[in-house]
Amino acid sequence: MFRRVLLGLVLCAAQAFAQAEVAPDAFVMQLSSEIIDAVKSDQQIQSGDVARIRVLVDNKIVPNVNLQRMVVKSVGPQWRTATPDQQKRLTEEFKTYLINTYSGALTQVKDQSIKLRPVRTGANPNEVVIGTDVVGKGDPIQLDYRLEKAGDTWKIFDFNVLGLWATDSFRSQFARDLSAGGIDALIDRLTEKNKAIAGSKG
Amino acid sequence: MTLGRFVVCWLIAAAALVLEGCAVAPGSTRGDPLESMNRAVFSFNETIDAEVLKPAATSYQIIVPEFVRTSIENFFNNFNDGWSAINQLLQAKPAAALEMGLKFGVNTVFGFGGFVDVAGAGIERRSEDFGQTLGRWGLGPGPYLVLPLLGPSTLRDTVSLAADWKAIPEAFVERGGERWALATVHVISVRAGLLSATRALDEIALDKYSLIRDGYLARRRNQIYDGNPPDEPEADDSSDATEAAPPK
What we know:
- The structure holds two protein chains of two kinds.
- Chain A is α+β, with helices and mostly antiparallel strands.
- A five-stranded antiparallel sheet of chain A has the order 1-2-3-4-5.
- Chain A has seven helices and five strands, in the order ααααααβββββα.
- By secondary structure, chain B is mainly alpha-helical.
- The longest helix of chain B has 29 residues, at 35-63.
- Chain B is globular and about 50 Å long.
- Classes of the chains: A alpha+beta, B mainly alpha.
- At the A-B interface, helix 5, helix 6, strand 2, strand 5 and helix 7 of A face helix 8 and helix 9 of B.
């Protein structure tokens, strides 16, 4: 009983701290460092357990992503032609695909660290681009994020690797399936791709 | 037929096609008016890669010990650094040119001709090639081109190859057997370095051709502006949301 009171107090305190506003660059650095540290320190991940990375991404990154905005941006104008059921299925498969994509990238992490680039504020205070560099043995890899304000914190709705925005790349790749067989074709393709990725590494 | 003449012939063919149909062909994407031809060459390259290059690079990675592979990589990178310095001068970036020149000098003199990367992380590598120089001077990329064996390029970058190829180790070696041997090692070394990245790419790409093209074009633009390209207008999010202006 005493423990429960203590827990309640701790949670209240945590809540109070959580009310403090987070700056976008601090948000990105914290999230990136958390992920990189988790990947580097986990023995099973370092020995190639991709399923564990996917769990990590699902738990830590996905809650900080505006999935809806990302999938709409990646599908393009044809999103509006989809039925609510199709949209739901498409969002689900897209989420899995995103997790698989990001996890694949994280398997390359061995001894890298994240460096923030100077923040450029724009006209819109509710949206910002935060640039980072993943620095390791080779050339630094540019990794940028488009963030939108979500209450006291931020949500990611696009990311950029070496100059290519993810949603632009998805839109371009999805276009073929969309023009071949519409939304259903895209859903099928994504489902198939996700199964293949899950099957190959387990 | 020399490599140089081969490139020129290819350029003339590509230019002829470009002039013939500069407007966006139906079914092709903006920036890629030669998409159907490019996809055909891409298929060909993929086959060669799967049958020849990838197995060779994989064997190379398995058989040759890591420090030897790293030394070979350093050797070729070092030549690259020297060429980068020259390009940085051409782009009026004296500070960068000085740094890369220093890196090249240190590694050549103290690194046994470039085999040891003595300068290491102390001097960060900023690679520049002649294509970036032309881009910096204002020359647009032109249509996307997939070159046989060489892979993704643009009209501008293909033309620059003529200049770039004057600065690689192969250029300083006698024509014939030796040059081809060196070129082979070069290609396999580069391919081996890309093995894990291409494995990841193969897994996630829904349309490998598009991904490589978009990645290449975005990367080139990024390289020319050294990581700060002018923002392009964002595409529509949806019919409901009004698109916010991209930050300056």
